[in-house]
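User: Assemble these into one structure.

Assistant: Restating your components, then the assembled model:
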Amino acid sequence: MRSRYPLIASASLTILPLSAAAQTAAAVLDHGDTAWMIVASMLVLMMTIPGAALFYGGMVRAKNLLSVMMQCFAITTLVTALWMLYGYSLAFSTEGMHAGVTNWHSFIGGLDRGMLAGLKPDTLYQTVPESVFVMFQLTFAIITPALIIGAYAERMKFSAMLWFSGLWLTLVYLPVAHMVWGGPGSLLGDLGVLDFAGGTVVHINAGIAGLVACLVIGKRRGWPQTHMPPHNLGYTVIGASLLWLGWFGFNAGSAVAANGSAGMAMLVTQIATAAAAIGWVAVEWAIHRRASVLGIASGAVAGLVAITPAAGTAGPAGALLIGFIAGTVCFFTATRLKHKLGYDDSLDVFGVHAIAGIIGALLTGPFAAPKLGGFGTVTSPLLQLWIQAKGVGFTIAWSGVLSWGILKLLDRTVGLRVDADQEEMGLDIAEHEERAYNLT
Amino acid sequence: MKWITAIIKPFTLDDVREALAEAGVQGMTVTEVKGFGRQHGHTELYRGAEYVVDFLPKLKIEVAVGDDRLDHAIEAISTAARTGRIGDGKIFVGTLDQVIRIRTQELDADAL
């Protein structure tokens, strides 16, 4: 649980014992917090451009590199505009919300903050300018639809991608963000679901949408008979490294303060990421007798995903276990499950993001308990595991059903896929009339 | 006149070129090619997708020589391109009917 709601923070984070006096004092701008949150916002933006763009771009064939980078860049611009128009309001407006009361606004925010109404330079969100909080949360709204592109890469029309990203943001991301982070009166927040930095909101949400997207749009032509090896794993390693670095903004920034919670979030993020990379490569080494570059980078991303919901509550030992379990399990889901079930999730959005997201979201519960080394107020690890499972199940259902509906609608209207010739030619030329590599 | 086509390992090209020059061969054409013979390819594995690489990168060199220089040219190529390991390549020799130098219209031996 984020500490952005002082009441909730004081209830769930023992390391932030906010008294009533401290809450009153929290209405004053803190320079340290503000400086850190500005930097954190930039770090999270860097995760999408160029982090995810390079991570995914390296894994596609050379003829589709620009299409992936363009999708990341275009989503960044589209989501920024929608966020300003109504996104921030639907996610974070507290209009009509009351703690413990389930109503319409437990699912979605109001439109009272549309066009960022009421935002001035001196408007505060806790101890930071609200403008910084708007910006920080915007970078989360950008990366989530950008993560999904890995599932339908190399075959979706650019126009369909824009429609999908905009509709998905509106109907899936904004409600789920509101339900988890909307504050007192929000559906999953009131349920007690712990999601410090977005394991549920970002990763399970995007991962499930990715699975649905690759099922609705269908396999790439020729897959799996035709080999489609990554065209530049060097890009993928650079991308994974930028994701790792940027993730400190994501997880430590979710403390919305430059404090002990942020510091601990940074440390457990590092530990879980390393543990997951080690776990993935260890299994790979045992099975295939070698350690791969794509494996260590993929394992690291699985660890980053898994620790995200737990970053504010897990201790170092919990982080080590969460990361290691996510890395080893994701090795199997990314390398075996897809081929066994026959769905073409091009870059393993489901196999890495959804699976590591679910593992992380579930394990966040027990590892928040002090008796398991955590820093939360969880007294019954099993009960919290059950609460987490409800949050996971709800997100899977919400994202799965609505993503399917959006994609089916677009398939019948604008059409999801490029035609066979364009797919063969590559999206760079077919959709953008440009080529990534003009060598010779 | 003979037409020599040799498939060699790419890194032996400089040695082959020098050896041919010493053998009195005046020119050659080089092409990057892929193929396989007795040398096996290798496998690549990306997140469980196994990718068998059958065709290996090689260079094809083509040389036209007079009958008198054939043995020297073959000797030059087979010495310079030889590493003793599998995949060193092959030399194919065929008969050449006619040669014309475009600039001067010289024919056959004069054109080589």
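The helical segments of chain B are 13-22, 70-80, 108-111.
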